[in-house]
Structures are given as structure tokens and as C-alpha cells.
Write a structure and sequence with these properties.
The complex is a heterodimer of chains A (about 190) and B (about 160). Chain A is about 40% helix and about 10% strand. Helices cover about 70% and strands about 0% of the residues of chain B. Chain B starts with 10 loop residues before the first helix and ends with a helix. The chains are: A alpha/beta (about 190), B mainly alpha (about 160).
């Protein structure tokens, strides 16, 4: 016997409605693969490419360490983010309108990610330029690390940050995905 | 990382491991239809107490006790007779509680549940309160008057 789908769904919805979750998440299918998307009452906490990963348990434990143990798959908790991601991938959305929860991020990362959020759709910027805008022109390498560990890829557009020569350099989710996103936005042909 | 006690798993993991068994217990006690509301109530009660858990031991016994309690409440609301006793779930490996069984079986239901959960399963009073739907103070009182009663019987 398994728990009937509608009963299961009703419990998950009720948990969100009663505001009993530290974080709710869902797995969202996109052209760049399944994304695990998690949110707290403060905002979006995590977007991760291991949505369909071999070790979902590890992703959940990481979320629980940040937000608390009441982590539940609850589509309603990330419904807005899900809708905006769908719109983005169908080319209908150019900017995300979502509060973010950057708890656990060091101060430098928070200021870099804040600047990153301002890089417009369809444009690229270099690691050095972003470092300068974050107030430390010499920190290009550290900015690279922050991009690599970006907790909210796609929504905070680290795919728009490229090397000084214009080469794509690297991407936490793999270069293919970076290319896909930049092509979607018309930033490369 | 070297903790001897089990850490508290993400709620999703806990739910995934116990949802079926909770539903089976509730269907047995309440029938198919009424089991559905009770299922939701059980896991909402568990969620309410979950961030106050101090360790992840005996979570199965804990959630089955909550479910039993929810079933008893449902019977009571419907004006149906019910044995007062939250039947304590069998747990694989039968912990220390087994050795207490012959003693605790004679206690009043709430005291028995509190004594067994406290001393058999090593749950703290927050957890016991959530399982019995009462306050930590009331749980502590029930456990200590249960122990007093046992002492009087033994000596």
C-alpha cells in the first residue's frame, strides 16, 4: 500500500498553509534538466542542478542545516518561483521577481551576489568588472569562487559572467548549461 | 559528526519512512474515510513538534504514538467508546521498554504512556507532550506519578 496521491498532496499543501515548514521544495523540470528549488518564508533559498541527482538526501540535509529540519517537498511553497522559471525558459520573462534568502552566505558573497543580480538579461560581464562593482577590483578570483558556489543559479545570473577574453570559462552547473542559458537570452549566437 | 545519537533527518525523509505505516494504523482504527483526516492531523502534529526534537531516536515509536492519540481523539469526538490507552507500537528490536511491560501494563493509560516513552524510549518531555497532545509539564507529571505508583507497588 502506498499513500494515495491526493491525500499526500493535501498534507503537503496543509503544511505550507499552516506555515509549519522551515523550507519547502520541489523539483522543476527545465530544458537544462531538473532543478531542485527550495524556499523559506524569507525567500528563495536554493536552486540546484542536482534536482534529479543520485543523492537527493544530501541536498535535503544541506537545506536542513541552513533552514531547520522541517524540510518538505511542497510544490505550493515554490509555486511562484516555478512559474517564473517556466516563463524564463519559454522566453517570456527577462527578470525574476523573487525575494531571496541568502542566509549562511558570507558578507563578501552577499555583496557580490547583490551586484550580480543587476547584470541585465542578455548581457555579459567579466569577473573583473563584477569584482570592481562589488568594491574590490583585485578580487576577480574570489568572485569566481562566489559564482561557482552561487546558491541560486539562473535566478542570480552567474551564467552572465564570463572571462576577460569573452570565453565562458566555467559554470557550477557545467559549461553546456551556461551556453544554453546565454543562447536563450540571445547573448551568444 | 561523531554523535552517538541519531541526528534528526529532514522531515521529508521522516515522512517518507513512516507515512504508509501511519496510514495503515489509522485505517485499522478508524476505517478508510476517517483515516484521511487523521493522517493529515498526525503529520501536522509531528511537524509542530519536529523542530523541538533533541535527537532522532525512536521516531517511529513517536509518530505511531501520535497517530494512536489522534485516533483516540477522533473516537472521542464521535462519542464512541474507546479504550483510553494509546496502544504503544511494537518496535523492531524491542527496546528496554519490553522489560518494563509487565510493570507498566497496570498503570493508568496516560501514566503508562509517559513512563514508557520517557524510560523505555528515552524521549524528552517535549516529544512526549507532542505524542500525547498535552504540555511538557503535564507529561513530566504523568511520568513521575507513574514512577511513584510503580515504586509503591514494588516495595
Amino acid at each position: 500500500m502506498t499513500v494515495p496521491t491526493d491525500l499526500d498532496r493535501r498534507f503537503r499543501d496543509a503544511a505550507v498553509e499552516a506555515r509549519l515548514l522551515d523550507a519547502g521544495y520541489d523539483v522543476v523540470d527545465t530544458p537544462v534538466g531538473p532543478l531542485l528549488v527550495a524556499a523559506t518564508d524569507r525567500g528563495l533559498l536554493r536552486v540546484s542542478f542536482d534536482g534529479g541527482g543520485d543523492d537527493p538526501e544530501a541536498a535535503l540535509e544541506q537545506i536542513a542545516r541552513l533552514a531547520g529540519p522541517r524540510v518538505l517537498r511542497a510544490p505550493r511553497a515554490v509555486a511562484v518561483a516555478h512559474a517564473e522559471l517556466d516563463e524564463y525558459f519559454s522566453g517570456k520573462r527577462r527578470a525574476f521577481d523573487l525575494p531571496v534568502d541568502l542566509r549562511g552566505q558570507p558578507g563578501f558573497a552577499v555583496s557580490v551576489l547583490g551586484e550580480l543580480a543587476k547584470v541585465p538579461y542578455g548581457h555579459t560581464q567579466t569577473y573583473g568588472e563584477l569584482a570592481t562593482r562589488a568594491g574590490n577590483p583585485k578580487a576577480a578570483r574570489a568572485v569566481g569562487m562566489v559564482m561557482n558556489r552561487n546558491p541560486l543559479p539562473i535566478v542570480l545570473p552567474c551564467h552572465r559572467i564570463v572571462g576577460a577574453s569573452g570565453s565562458l570559462v566555467g559554470y557550477g552547473g557545467g559549461l553546456e548549461r551556461k551556453e544554453h542559458l546565454l543562447r536563450l537570452e540571445g547573448a551568444i549566437l | 559528526m561523531m554523535d552517538a545519537v541519531a541526528t534528526i533527518p529532514p522531515f521529508e525523509t521522516f515522512y517518507g519512512e513512516h507515512a504508509e505505516e501511519v496510514l495503515r494504523l489509522l485505517r485499522r482504527r478508524l476505517g478508510r474515510d476517517r483515516a484521511e483526516d487523521a493522517f493529515q492531523e498526525t503529520f501536522l502534529r509531528a511537524l509542530r513538534a519536529y523542530d523541538r526534537l533533541t535527537h532522532g531516536e525512536h521516531l517511529r515509536a513517536w509518530v505511531l504514538t501520535i497517530a494512536t492519540r489522534v485516533a483516540i481523539d477522533a473516537h472521542r469526538r464521535a462519542g464512541e467508546p474507546t479504550e483510553e490507552l494509546p496502544e504503544l507500537p511494537d518496535v523492531d528490536g524491542r527496546p528496554a521498554y519490553e522489560e518494563l511491560a509487565f510493570l507498566t501494563d497496570t498503570l493508568p493509560p496516560k501514566e503508562r504512556a509517559a513512563v514508557v516513552l520517557r524510560y523505555g524510549y528515552d524521549l524528552d518531555y517535549e516529544q512526549i507532550a507532542a505524542a500525547l497532545d498535552s504540555s511538557p509539564d503535564a507529561a513530566r507529571q504523568a511520568a513521575s506519578s507513574g514512577v511513584r505508583r510503580l515504586r509503591r507497588r514494588i516495595t
